[in-house]
What we know:
The protein is α/β, with parallel strands linked by helices. It contains 13 helices and nine strands. It is 53% helix and 13% strand.
Amino acid sequence: MSVPPRIGFIGLGIMGRAMALNLVKSGFQVSVYNRTRERTAEFADLGCEVASTPKALASMCDTIITMVSDPAAMRAVIDGPEGAAAAFSGGSTLINMSTLSPDYTVELSKKCFAAGVAFLDCPVSGSKGAAESGQLVILAGGGAEALERASPVLRAMGREIVHAGPVPSGTALKLCINLIVAQLTTALAESAALAQAQGIDPGLIFRALALNPALNCGYFALKKDNILKREYPPAFPLRHMLKDARFMLQAAGKKRLELPVTAAAERLMTRALDSGYGAKDLSVVLDNLTEPLREKENA
Ligand code: NAP
């Protein structure tokens, strides 16, 4: 990018806040929009312009980055009279970094193409800590030239970019990665529940895993406190992983591919959502698994 981009960042949640702050720290000119205005206050204090609507944001920027919950949130910030698309101008770029469905990602790219806007789907691998430290792995879909132009911006938020192919390849790859994350998390929770049922200290699971180089996975260390303390401050909210699991099953279903273990994880996460745990970290599924044990203890 020879002329520095004017970046408009939409969605200052757990991930977006940290990513936008890293763009500011890297010296980019960043303006922001967030549905809940209070979340923009720290950006205003840093000298960023705060737009009152996504349309107003798009009219003052040439590169829009979105990091919102899901397709419904994306439609809310893109479509309609106050949506960003109402101010799309030819030559701009939209980089979506939220995890959306592949189908909706294609729909978005068509909308951008019609408006002369370059589109990249760039969901991320890595959670709150990686977003804060700028260590995300960016899973990119789109044209090589547009990706090359956007790479200085992406590198301010992540340490590596994996170009998976044309749109929606970034999203497709993200679902493959999150399939593993969902199963690792549910596996940890089931293992801890089984340990408890057998009168074994769940802390020993983590100790034994860490001692085996083949099983010493950084992700287990990230979730250790959640599992052992049974506290679930949201790094990756359960409702977002449930959304992703449903996208995985839809994508597989379209090709008549069965994902029986992912389907079981989806059912467990649905139970957790129905228990009111949607905003907690996805490791909260442990509480659903151990409910029968607690009931027995309390009887
Ligand atoms: P989050 O903390 O729940 O933030 C969601 C953002 O979307 C907030 O800015 C929220 O605005 C906005 N939003 C939601 N519904 C909206 C609507 N109807 N209209 C306008 N804005 C709306 O989520 P997050 O954890 O940052 O995740 C963001 C995306 O990244 C998700 O797609 C998630 O799957 C993906 N992701 C998350 C992680 C992780 O570890 N957390 C890791 C990789 C990828 P308000 O502030 O007004 O609520």
